[in-house]
Amino acid sequence: MLLDRGTERATLDRLLAEVRTGESRALVLRGEAGIGKTALMEYVSGQATGCRTVRAAGVEAEQELAFAALHQICAPMLDHRLDQLPVPVPGRRRMSRRTWVGNGRAHIEVRGIDRPGNEFIARRLEERLKRIHGVHWAEVNAVLGRVVVVFDDDAVSPGDLLDTVKDVEEAHELETEDFAKNRPEHPADVEPLLEQFAALSGEALGFALAALRPALGRRTGPSDLLAALALIEATPRLRDQLSERLGRAATDLTLALTHAVAQGLAGGPPLAVLTDAAYRAALISEINARRTVWRRREPELCTNRKR
Q1: Which terminus has fewer CB within 10 Å in the chain: N or C?
Q2: What tens digit of pLDDT does each residue of 95-138 get?
Q3: Cα–Cα distance between 148 and 103 in angstroms, integer?
């Protein structure tokens, strides 16, 4: 039993009461050694019936490890949920081919071309494309998984180039493979822009939920969702596991949307949602600027190639 400390106990009781109504609260308990901080913490733990209580201990050896205490607190909340994520199925794989065509040049995505040991397929694809009447030059960029082709618009169509790429894929049994999800984005791709617009829409949804929350009366989302998201975002190993299942872009988008909704359902002003929305707007501006520069500078990439 904790004797005296009536003011402190009243503060702690009030905090617990507010948490039970769905509010988010934080309290720092500090003071000199021996004044009873541990006793007050034990009091809170004893009074927190119906609440989930987690603890973390500071260890000097871990002071150089980022988020070590956060990992101790949040790890038990995951309850191995990452293992319950569905495995990828064909309907969720990226099967659509990304291409860019302009100014007599085509950048065409190719299946499996970036894998070690498939260099001979890249050479064969280049040879097949160069044999097409009207194609002046072709070369594979394995890092981006694309083949770049310089061709005469009047003599050959982009469809002819795509048919040749598909023929080579089929000849080497690559036609059923999905396209790589974690390779660098091509500067002309529109998909990163669409993903950021989707994330920004999620931020708008989060802001709307925050505005409606007083009418809801209490938080409707899971109490440990924000903590779990923070752990995933701060732990490379957990992000890597998600990326292996969903792909890097899909992982970033899923975390962004979930985080926005969770912030909207949490208590307090939606400052985090507004901050994230500003960040997404900046990314959209950056992607647009990159695509604009790409369209302007792309002709210079092939200035030494025969046209």
Answers
A1: N
A2: 678 888 888 889 999 988 878 888 889 999 999 999 999 999 99
A3: 12
Which pLDDT does position 44 carry in this prediction? Answer: 84
Element (H, E) at 37: helix 37-47
**pLDDT value at position 206?**
72
Point out which residues pair with 135 in neighbouring strands: 151
Where are the strands (E) in the chain, listed by range? 99-102, 105-109, 135-141, 146-151
> Phi/psi at 70 (nearest 5 deg)?
-60, -40
pLDDT tens sequence across 57-95: 776 655 655 566 666 777 666 655 555 554 444 434 556
**Cβ-based burial of 63 (10 A; exposed 0-12, middle 13-18, buried ≥19):** exposed
Q: Hey, is 107 helix, strand or coil?
A: strand
Structural domains for the chain: 6-84 (no CATH), 93-186 (3.30.70.100), 191-294 (no CATH)
Q: Rounded to an integer, what distance in angstroms lies between the CA atom of residue 143 and that of residue 141? A: 6
C-alpha–C-alpha distance, residues 110 and 187, integer Å = 16
Q: What is the value of pTM for the model shown?
A: 0.51
Q: Which residue has the higher pLDDT, 47 or 220?
A: 47
For 94-216, strand residue ranges (E) read 99-102, 105-109, 135-141, 146-151
CB neighbour list of residue 50: distance below 8 Å, 6 or more residues apart: 20
